Fold this sequence. Notes:
By secondary structure, this protein is of the alpha+beta class. Helix content is about 20%, strand content about 60%. The chain has one domain (about 5-60): Nuclear Transport Factor 2, Chain: A.
Amino acid sequence: MDNEILSKRLDVESKTFFFDYKENPKGKFLRIIEKAGGKKNAIVLPDTGLEEFIKVLESIKGSR
Length: 64
């Protein structure tokens, strides 16, 4: 069973994103769920990759 550490919701245009930071016996992870048009997609990022993931997002933001 996953233990929830933190959960956030973000609404962008017609999409809803759920950011769930959780922990289980294998470790901590971030699950990002996108809901739009009746469809649902998810990615799971291990905690060990979170810093690099944030750096990538920041580099994209900086190039806009």
